[in-house]
Amino acid sequence: MHTVLPSDIESIERATVAAVAPERLDECPGWLLPMDSGTVGRARSAVPLHHAAQPLELLDAIVQAYRAAGYPPTLRLPEAPAYAPWHQALQAQGWQRRQPTWTQVGTVQALLDLPGNGAEVRLEVQPNAAWMAMYLGAGLDPVDGASRARALARAQGLRYASVQRAGETVACGAASYSQGWLGVHGMRTAAAQRGQGLAACVLRAMAQEARQRGIERVFLQVDQHNAPALALYRRAGLALAWGYAYWRP
To answer: What does the radius of gyration of the chain's CA atoms come to, in whole angstroms?
Structure first.
């Protein structure tokens, strides 16, 4: 497990919300309140900017802020000891914990050190049709995919990485560069192309751009049960910073 500073937590959460670009973003002391009618959890869940204890009285204020704006309340809470009272209070009120996820961090240098297979990676300022076809391809619910595409379209400054073969995109990802971090999002590899090192090539290309911008740290969020992705990220030197889960009424 990797120890992060309180300032790192805030910068990662701000960079995350900037990359998923909700329809509306409010704040209250110590919290970001992204609000969105789509399916992207990070774009529609209140998240604390630090992992120190916070008064439970804030819970009602956050819930009311979402309801007043016409959005269903959702919380994205760290699995930190300071939030145990929040978890207990939410369980007592019938809220459900879903989608346990890990925030992982590492260094840009470790991504640059990944072995490559010589695949050419394009890094574009806009997602083209081939990139979107890969991102929204087999295995992704079309409604969820459309929601994710809208969130990406609202984001500013992303770079869209892709590997193409025979005119088709066979691996892709989106990179954000903000708050002093390279953020890795939307990693996909075509099923028939897996195990060939394409995802590593995508990560290296993202890292090269980060190095050019003077950014030396990387973060991402990954489902804690996604074994293939976790294996790749271990090879890339990424380690757990903290876990979180979504809480919904």
So the answer is: 18
**pLDDT per residue over 44-98, tens digit each?**
999 999 999 899 999 999 999 999 999 999 999 999 999 999 999 999 999 999 9
Q: Using DSSP bridges, classify how beta strands 121-124 and 159-165 pair: parallel, antiparallel or unpaired.
A: antiparallel
pTM over 0.90: yes
Is the separation of the CB atoms in 78 and 59 below 8 Å? no
Residues 147 and 236 reside in one and the same domain: yes
Q: How far is CA 89 from CA 55, 75, 99, 133, 161, in A?
A: 12, 13, 19, 42, 42
Are residues 94 and 118 both part of a single domain?
A: no
- CATH number of residue 179's parent domain: 3.40.630.30
Domain count, the chain: 2
Alpha helices per DSSP H over the chain: 6-20, 57-69, 84-92, 108-112, 129-135, 142-154, 198-212, 227-235
- 156 and 225 housed in the same domain: yes
Model pLDDT, residue 2: 79
Tell me, yes or no, whether 1 lies in a domain. Answer: no
Q: Are 220 and 230 in contact (CB under 8 A)?
A: no
Segments forming the whole domain that contains residue 209: 106-243
Q: Per the structure block, which two tokens stand in for 188?
A: 């996909």
Whether 151 contacts 35, CB under 8 Å: no
- Mark the ranges of the chain whose per-residue pLDDT is less than 70: 138-140
At 140 the pLDDT is: 62
